[in-house]
Design a protein that fits this description.
This protein is of the alpha/beta class. It is 40% helix and 16% strand. The protein has 17 helices and 15 strands. Strands 8, 9, 10, 11, 12, 14 and 15 form a seven-stranded mixed sheet that branches. Strands 1-3-2-4-13-7 form a six-stranded mixed sheet. Helix 8 packs across helix 10 and helix 16 runs antiparallel to helix 17. The longest helix is centred in the last third of the chain and has 16 residues. The protein is globular, with a radius of gyration of 20 Å.
Length: 421
Amino acid sequence: MRSTRPLAAVLATVSLAGLTAACSSDTAGSGGGDSLRVAASSTDRVPMDAAVAAFRAKNPDIQVDVTYADTDQLQSTLRTQLSSGTAPDVFTVWPGNGNPGAVQVLQKGGYLTDLSDYKFTPKIADGDKSVTQVDGKTYIVPVTFNGIGAIYNKKTLQEIGGTEPKTWDDVLDLCHKAKDKGKVLLALGNQTTWVTQMVDYALAATTVYSNTPDFDEQLSAGKAAFADSAWKETLQQYLDLNKAGCFTKNPNGTGYETSVTDVAQGKAVGLVQVTTSIPQVQKEAGADTELGMFALPASGDAGQTRIPGAVSAAYGVNAASKHAAQAKTFAEFLGSPEGQKIYAEKGGTLPALPNDSFQADPALKVLIDMQKDGKTVPFMDQRWPNPEVQQTHFTAVQKLFSGDTSVDDALKSMDLAAGSE
């Protein structure tokens, strides 16, 4: 996920995640010296531009050319470039194993430089090593810790007479309050493929992982299946929200950018997204708009609620880079306290590595609190057995919303992709 930038977009991680449909290229800085090519997700444009500016202030002889692309396009283009020897020197790599651009997938092809001896590596938390390492060696620099929740406009929530929901019934009640005021509770842009995963990831954190935190390990070992798990309840709840009018009309015909605009303009109270979407919502809504965020409840027990939270933005160094020394310098900067602080502050998220100087956006309080309380779960696709599961999931959700498949058949398709059928 990221999605992602899971998400891809996240992640696709979800990367997992303001996206544009086409690539765009920016030269961050000018002047002579070595040219370093960087590829990043469109969702990371604001924080990456800020990080590059700070990096060049310290390294004026290194020119940095950054190319941004939507998650799907970035992943497909990157694989082609790596196999042909034309890939950037530093590029987005998704943690774990959930998509074609994930660390475990790329490392098998020999495309990534071993970063085990870099200065930031000892600071990586034990809980994050499983999605940043392969066979005990570190291959990516984790930059941000991201979450998935309902990002909302506090003024709009007040206008519909609502408060942050604590239970599943509270969510449904809010949907009705929003409809009564001519709004929707949650803008949803499932036309943008990676967005399809956000709502059910947010729900599954509670429905699936609060009771079976090792579900993904069981899945990989052939001891569990999507079709025989609480994922069935999760997808049904996703559809129930749509049936109750909680989402944008025709989500499959609505893109991510439109969903952000709907929240900024007060047509929707909020949207379920990765926390890296906060800066874009804030930019469109205006600096005076106060945003909040809550974990999406999925049961009648508020204490059971969990939130997806995991390493999000991360970067690898091309093993075939012709500017290896400059690439290492840049990767070290991204892993430094200064680099992490800038990236997290501009990206509306948290540093992936300990950072005493970081001041979090107030909207991130729920993620910080739940992380401290041990109520976060990794992004689901980061630990799925192969990238095909996430891609199948994207398609399955779109088919569910178009009425072209059932929950049972959607889960069966995911089991087939996971190799558990």
